[in-house]
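Progress note, sequence design subtask.
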């Protein structure tokens, strides 16, 4: 193959590699450079199998193609790499009628499998978070009551003419104990409150949240409706869903402080129906596909992968509980929540199965 004949492969979105008779790479398109995280110059003349810890699977496919045992062959593989995540790819090996370049290999990321693995990690993380929260909350609650009670008894023992600072100290202890008690109650709230199921119209949920947000931020903020009115009603806990959407929208509004001051802040509520969706290894014919999008500065990169962890907040003074509770509420509806964020666009996506 000449460089001119390979030029068209540069435009493909999937990774393409052309190998010589020894199984060495003589051509890699830009998509292959991105996927393999290496330049074409460094990839050239390397044996493809040497790039992966389990390269023998590719070697077997190469040998068969070079021997013209098939014209093309497809296989899903997890290609393991030293110190990095395995590549989940669909491999297409094609035999070429070129003695010098007998094999072309195309690598396509297996998006569905990657999504499934990501959901599994989120579910495992969520279960671990819930267990940690319950244990931590109960461990805090018992001594907290004792601290508050001791402070009250101490205040009662102070003489009537005790110095004002002494009474202030006991009041500080009591108020801080009450604040921590409120925090613990919020941590335990999703596990205490019963899941009240009824018919839910998701647009009523969004309209309720919209009115609450605009009441708090009446100037400089626009909340755009992008509704699919054909979305059906479903069975769910309306109050939980209102709280889940409100937590996200309120965080967005607070992050938009500068844009609100400039008068160009925007939050978009979008509703759609997704088809043939897999959630937690279960295939659903239909699912509610919700997006809450803002044009704020984005979530700091260092906490993006931890935003659903308890007590993690990107805002000074934030409790770091809102998104943790939101995740719990969505999971109680058998759904998942994801987030993609960059400066100028933060998109929270909620998927909930429909009957």
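Output:
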């Amino acid at each position: 193959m000449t460089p001119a004949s390979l030029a068209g492969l540069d435009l493909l979105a999937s990774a393409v590699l052309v190998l010589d008779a020894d199984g060495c790479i003589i051509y890699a398109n830009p998509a292959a450079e991105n996927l393999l995280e290496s330049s074409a110059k460094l990839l050239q003349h390397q044996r493809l199998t040497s790039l992966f810890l389990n390269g023998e699977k590719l070697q077997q496919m190469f040998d068969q193609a070079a021997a013209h045992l098939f014209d093309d062959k497809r296989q899903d593989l997890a290609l393991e790499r030293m110190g990095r995540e395995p590549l989940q790819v669909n491999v297409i090996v094609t035999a070429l009628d070129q003695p010098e370049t007998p094999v072309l290999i195309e690598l396509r990321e297996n998006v569905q499998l990657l999504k499934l693995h990501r959901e599994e990690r989120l579910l495992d993380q969520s279960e671990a978070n819930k267990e940690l929260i319950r244990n931590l909350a109960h461990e805090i609650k018992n001594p907290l009551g004792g601290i508050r009670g001791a402070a009250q008894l101490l205040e009662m023992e102070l003489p009537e003419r005790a110095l004002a600072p002494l009474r202030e100290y006991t009041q500080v202890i009591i108020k801080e104990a009450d604040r921590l008690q409120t925090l613990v109650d919020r941590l335990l709230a999703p596990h205490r409150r019963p899941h009240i199921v009824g018919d839910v119209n998701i647009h009523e949920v969004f309209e309720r949240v919209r009115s609450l947000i605009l009441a708090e931020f009446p100037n400089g903020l626009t909340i755009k409706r992008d509704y699919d009115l054909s979305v059906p009603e479903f069975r769910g806990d309306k109050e939980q869903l209102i709280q889940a959407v409100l937590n996200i929208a309120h965080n967005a509004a607070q992050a938009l402080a500068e844009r609100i001051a400039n008068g160009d802040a925007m939050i978009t509520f979008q509703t759609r129906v997704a088809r043939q969706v897999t959630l937690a290894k279960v295939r659903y014919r239909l699912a509610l596909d919700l997006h809450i999008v803002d044009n704020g500065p984005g979530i700091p990169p260092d906490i993006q992968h931890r935003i659903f962890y308890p007590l993690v907040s990107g805002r000074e003074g934030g409790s770091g509980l809102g998104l943790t509770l939101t995740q719990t509420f969505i999971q109680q509806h058998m759904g998942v929540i994801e987030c993609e964020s960059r400066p100028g666009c933060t998109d929270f996506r909620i998927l909930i199965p429909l009957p």
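The radius of gyration is 28 Å. Work on this subtask will continue into the next period as scheduled.
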